[in-house]
């Protein structure tokens, strides 16, 4: 029998009212995050990745749907139940530097979650001394200030802070996007190493399919508030079934000399989340769109074991 997933998300929705319009940031998404895996969430800017991440760690309130964490429904949990679960779920941001209080030392920044959780000062200090070397920083850095460090080092501080309360699940929201390419690999390797060491589960948000290829076990592709395809990394990169996934992959520059880009399967810019197209929300950009696509909203269907996609024509598209 399959283990209970660490997270079980069903029909999760989050809309924002902005100046009389409704922005459908997250519009009914369902998926599981398995224990110990890295599930990548990819898609263009504005498709709802960050909102999804914030909903999962309960930093944002859903309008509808459910989240079960470790078998317990936490969507409507009372404050004290939620507090216990919050410790187990953390978030790493794209640019930790901008969210750090510049007047706090590295030690104080890493201690803050422990302070808020009511740990004693001595315990906090001991844990900081343990955490800094774990993320590849000297324990002496605790007395220094974040501005003294490089972007990569600041991200290590952000990771130490996220680990402080020994979480099970971490949402990594574009954790390396602001870093130089040479530093990206180091931080990705650190995250992977920590995952193995502590059995962590990651939701890894990224718009960069090259980075995702290094870290993810499975990949979910998001378009205008919906998951349009989800599969193992191998299946997704080898045989993408949704035209949008194909378009994203065709836009990844190839490093092999002489390789030309594959034909684009999408045209134009992402539609706006406050004016989601009828039927298949991708039809305004899809080169395969037919009359049916403008009217019928395709459901996410299983096309092969563990491989789901939301496209009416998924079976008949050229491979
Ligand atoms: N607090 C908010 N109030 C109003 N609209 C919001 C809010 N947060 C997000 N949105 C809107 O919801 C949609 C999804 O935003 P979100 O930040 O989740 O996208 P994203 O995929 O993370 O984008 P990016 O790749 O640029 O980080 C966007 O249209 C955004 O403008
Ligand atoms: S349902 Fe139609 S418009 Fe949507 S992705 Fe498939 S072919 Fe394109
Ligand atoms: Mg984002």
Automatic annotation (TrEMBL):
The text of the family note is: Belongs to the ABC transporter superfamily.
Sorted keywords for this record are: ATP-binding, Nucleotide-binding, Transport
What name does UniProt use for this protein?
A: Peptide ABC transporter ATP-binding protein
Q: Mind telling me which GO cellular component terms the entry cites?
A: plasma membrane
InterPro entries associated with the record: AAA+_ATPase, ABC_transp_ATP-bind, ABC_transporter-like_ATP-bd, ABC_transporter-like_CS, Oligopep_ABC_C, P-loop_NTPase
The entry's localization annotation reads: Cell inner membrane
- How is the protein disposed in the membrane? Peripheral membrane protein
Annotated transmembrane regions: none
């Amino acid at each position: 029998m399959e283990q209970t997933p660490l997270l079980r998300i069903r029909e999760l929705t989050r809309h924002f009212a902005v100046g009389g319009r409704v922005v459908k940031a997250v519009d009914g998404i369902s998926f599981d995050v398995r224990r110990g895996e890295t599930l990548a969430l990819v898609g263009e800017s504005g498709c709802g990745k960050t909102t999804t991440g914030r909903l999962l760690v309960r930093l944002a309130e859903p309008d509808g749907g459910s989240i079960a964490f470790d078998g317990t429904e936490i969507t409507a949990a009372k404050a004290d139940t939620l507090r216990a679960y919050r410790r187990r779920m953390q978030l790493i941001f794209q640019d930790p530097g901008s969210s750090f209080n510049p007047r706090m030392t590295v030690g104080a920044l890493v201690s803050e979650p422990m302070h808020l959780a009511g740990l004693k000062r001595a315990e906090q200090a001991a844990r900081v001394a343990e955490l800094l070397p774990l993320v590849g920083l000297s324990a002496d850095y605790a007395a220094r200030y974040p501005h003294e460090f490089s972007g990569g080092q600041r991200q290590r501080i952000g990771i130490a802070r996220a680990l402080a309360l020994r979480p099970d699940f971490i949402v990594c929201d574009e954790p390396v996007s602001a870093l130089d390419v040479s530093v990206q690999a180091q931080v990705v390797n650190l995250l992977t190493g920590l995952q193995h060491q502590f059995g962590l589960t990651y939701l890894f948000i990224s718009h960069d399919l090259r980075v995702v290829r290094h870290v993810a076990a499975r990949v979910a592709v998001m378009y205008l508030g919906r998951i349009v395809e989800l599969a193992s990394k191998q299946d997704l990169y080898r045989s993408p079934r949704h035209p949008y996934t194909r378009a994203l992959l065709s836009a990844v520059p190839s490093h092999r000399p002489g390789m030309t880009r594959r034909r684009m399967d999408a045209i134009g810019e992402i539609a706006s989340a406050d004016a989601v197209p009828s039927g298949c929300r991708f039809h305004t950009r899809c080169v395969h769109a037919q009359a049916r696509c403008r009217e019928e909203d395709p459901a996410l269907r299983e096309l092969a074991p563990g491989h789901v996609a939301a496209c009416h024509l998924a079976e008949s598209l050229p491979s």
